Input
Amino acid sequence: MDKIKQIKEEDFQKEIIEANVPVLVDFWAQWCRPCLKMQPFLKEISEEFEGKMKVCEVNVDENPGEAAKYGVRGIPTIFFFKNGEVAARVVGGSSGQKGAPTPCA
Output
């Protein structure tokens, strides 16, 4: 079963800001190849940290308001929220590893 929750703008506050566990949020789009390359990693993280952390996705085409609110200009952009606050942000695959995704504009 897929443990990655799809978030709509109307649910962002409740599901992410008010969450009682840390939340990893992937801002993505279906047309973005680097975003699609992130899917296996996100699934693995969601399974490994089930119950300790939520993993969510926000489709920027369907939910442009939240993407704009958090200054998302390139995707994939991943935010880590803790206690309702942004604790970390990564744009694209900045690990430097071969095959790591790079951002779409």
About this structure: DSSP finds three helices and five strands in the chain. Helices lie at 12-17, 33-48, 64-69.
